[in-house]
Specification:
Elements (H helix, E strand, L loop, with lengths): L11 E4 L7 H5 L5 E6 L3 H4 L2 H11 L3 E5 L8 H13 L4 E6 L1 H13 L6 H7 L11 E5 L11 E6 L4 E6 L9 E4 L9 H19 L7 H22 L4 H14 L13 H13 L3 H16 L4 H12 L8 H19 L15 H7 L12 H11 L1
Parallel strand pairs: 1-8, 2-3, 2-4, 4-5, 5-8
Antiparallel strand pairs: 6-7
Helix pairs in contact: 4-5, 7-8, 7-9, 7-11, 8-9, 8-12, 10-11, 10-14, 11-13, 11-15, 12-13, 14-15
The chain binds 5,6-dihydroxy-NADP and zinc ion.
The site of 5,6-dihydroxy-NADP (NZQ) has 35 residues, from helix 2, helix 5, strand 6, helix 7 and helix 11.
Amino acid sequence: MLGNFSYCNPTKLYFGKGSLSFLEEELKKYGQNVLLIYGGGSIKRNGIYDEVLNILQKAGKTVAEVAGVMPNPTIHKLNEGVAVARKHNTDLILAVGGGSVCDYAKALSVSVHYHGDPWEKYYIRFEEPDCETLPVGCVLTMAGTGSEMNAGAVITNPEQKLKIGHVFADEKIMPRFSVLDPTYTLTLPKYQMTAGIYDIFNHICEQYFSGEDDNTSDYISEGLMRSVIHASRIANKDPQDYEARSNLMWTATWALNTLVSKGKSTDWMVHMLGQAVGALTDATHGMTLAAVSLPYYRYILPYGVAKFKRFAVNVWGVFPENKTDREIAEEGLAAMEGWMKELGLVLHIGELGATAEMIPDIVKATLILDGGYKVLTKDEVAFILKESL
Ligand code: NZQ
Ligand code: ZN
C-alpha cells in the first residue's frame, strides 16, 4: 500500500427489511421544512411514497416536493428544484429513489444557497461549494450507483451534450443517513436491476484496474466482485430472491463509498466513455458502461497484463497452468463476457441509440483520465467507441 490517505465516511446506514422505521428518529435531528425529492412515479406505484409521507406527517414536518427527477437528471431540472427549495426555506432534502434522485439531491444541496450558475461552478470549473449546503437523507430504491454513501452527483447538460460527475471533496455533501431496504428494490424492472448489477461490478473494476503495488483494497475488491457475480446469477434466475438482492444492495454501497479506492490510484475510463455515450443518447447508465467495457479492457490489457491475469485467476477462477500470462488474462475477459451475456447486458452502444455519425461528438464529450494502464489519445477513444458500436 503505497498511498497516504485520510478516511471518513459520515453516512449512517439503516439496512434491511423494515429499516424505514428509523426515519422517524433521523427526522428529529433536522428542522421543520423537508423537501421530498423523487423520480417519475415508481414510488407512488409501489407504496413507498405513502410510507414515507406518513412518517413525515407523523413527525409534523412541513413538506414540499420536487417530483419527476428523470434518470440522468438535467441542469434544467436542477434549476427548477433550486427555486422550490428556496421558496420552502428547506432544512432537509429527502431523496426517495435511485441514484438519479440521490445525485440530484446532492446537486441541490450545494446549489440552493449559491447565487450563480451551478453548472458552470460545479461541473465546468469543478469548484467546491463556498456557500451554505443543505443536509441530504436518502431512501434508496435501486442498487447500483453507491450514491447513498458517497459525495458524487452526476448532472447532464443536454444542450452542451455533456454528462459530468462531480465527487465533492467535503464529506458533509455525503448523505447524512441512508435507508437501505432490499425489499424496495424488488419492484425494479429486470432491465434496471441488470444495469445496476453491472454498474456495481464496474465501479469495482474502475478502482481495481490501476496501479501495480500490493494493497489491501484490491483484495477487498476481489471479494466484492465475487459476491456480485454470485448474487447476480441467482437474481437473474429469480429477481425476487431476497438474499441475492440484499447482497447486491450491500455490495453496491461498498463498491463506491470511497473505501476500495483508498491508498491506490484508480482508472474510471469506462465511466468517462459511458457518460459520454449517455450525454448523447440519454441511455441507462449501467448499460452504457456494459457496452463500452469489453472493447476498452481488451484494448488496455497489453499494458496491464499482470493485473488482468490476477483478475482472471482470483475473480473468475481461471486455471493458470501451462498458459502464458497474456492467455490467462484474455481468458479472464472471456469469462467476464460470458457472464455479461448470461445476464443479458447490452454489449453494443448501437443498441442504445448511438450511431457512427455521433462518434465525433461522443469523443468530444469523453474526458480523458490518466489513472489507468494506458492514457488514451482521442484517436484511441474513437477506436474503442467504433469497436463498441
Ligand atoms: O423515476 P422512477 O419512476 O422512480 O423510476 C426509476 C427510473 O426509471 C426506476 N426505479 C428506481 N427504483 C425503482 C424503480 N422502478 C421500480 N421500482 C423501484 N424500486 O429505475 C429507473 C432508473 O433509476 P435511476 O435512479 O436513474 O438509476 P440509477 O440508480 O442507476 O442512477 C443512475 C444515475 O446515477 C449516476 C448515473 O450517471 C445516472 O445519472 N451515477 C452516480 C454515481 C454516484 N453518485 O457516485 C456513480 C455512478 O457511476 C453513476 O454515474
Ligand atoms: Zn457507475
